[in-house]
Amino acid sequence: MSVYTHVTRTQLDDFFSHYHLGAVISYTGIKEGMVNSNYFVTTTQGEFVLTLFEDMTDIDVDPVVKLLRHLADNQLCVPCPQHDRHGQPLKRLNHKTALLCQRLVGTALITPTLEHCTQIGLQLAKLHTCTQGYLFPTQNPNNLTSLKRLFDSLVPQLSNEDKNLVDNELAFQNQHNIAMPMGLIHADLFRDNVLFESGQFSGMLDFYSACHGELLFDVAIAVNDWCCDDGVINPEKIAALLSAYQCKRPLEVVEQQRWSVMLRRAALRFWLARLAHQNRARTGELVQQKDPLAFRRILVQHQA
Ligand SMILES: Nc1ncnc2c1ncn2[C@@H]1O[C@H](COP(=O)(O)OP(=O)(O)OP(=O)(O)O)[C@@H](O)[C@H]1O
Ligand SMILES: N[C@@H](CCO)C(=O)O
């Protein structure tokens, strides 16, 4: 997260008066993340995370709230949405849709080990298996048509070399675009969306990109972030994550055949998305940008 929307102490006191969660003791903006504004809030009854959605409306967030409940019911460590005195999870604050969740223990890792990658493979497989048959209303917005559209919007700022690279990659992706096993995907399982406490997985966060999509795309997104050391792919970590994943959900033959295609697609998606995010740079108190070129380098390694 970042903090784009400022919340005053008075606003927060008023906001919490609509819940049975105690009185606010302190609060602080969270600098991690890029999309929404987030605050840690300590009250007399516990620790919470307040999210103000910068672009999403109640209609967009509501399915995520329901999903979080489903996952919590299935023993996944995810933040539990809190309800106000009338049983409503979503409220308005500073003209934004606002959600309060319980704060989970643990911190995000900067340098994951093989063991951490193993745990991520297992947790991702748990997510995919416990949502089999779960109907999530949003289709994956990052299909090849939207990637092409995004690319077209970025063309003016790309070098000829990068234009060719993306053009060729899109052509490659189109040639290998066949039906794959689908389901609920997190779609953003980066290191900063997972917590570990004393070496053990303690929480999966940020389901705001969740959608119905190709399960293998989700695995590829996670691998590109968890299994690269300073931008260099670590095959041992990939093997650890994949083998743990397959203990719970073995890949189908069609997925095994398309593995490198998906790794490339996931890298392309985040390279382009980070470029677009830079263009839309908003002002705020704590604003985080991530390096688009990191994913260009990952894409080129997967192509080799
Ligand atoms: N329930 C929670 N418990 C503990 N920490 C949390 C919780 N929710 C969020 N955080 C912290 O806030 C950070 C940012 O949250 P999140 O990733 O949801 O924000 P975002 O703006 O949607 O980010 P992104 O750019 O990844 O989409 C996390 O990395 C984590 O450190
Ligand atoms: N996790 C994404 C940002 C949110 O989609 C990235 O690192 O580019």
UniProtKB/TrEMBL annotation:
Biological processes annotated in GO: threonine biosynthetic process
UniProt KW keywords: Amino-acid biosynthesis, ATP-binding, Kinase, Nucleotide-binding, Threonine biosynthesis, Transferase
Database matches in SUPFAM superfamilies: Protein kinase-like (PK-like)
EC code(s) of this entry: 2.7.1.39
One Pfam match: APH
Occurrences of domain Aminoglycoside phosphotransferase (ranges): 27-238
Major enzyme class: transferase
UniProt cross-references to Gene3D superfamilies, sorted A to Z: 3.90.1200.10, Phosphorylase Kinase, domain 1
UniProt protein name: Homoserine kinase
Gene name per UniProt: thrB
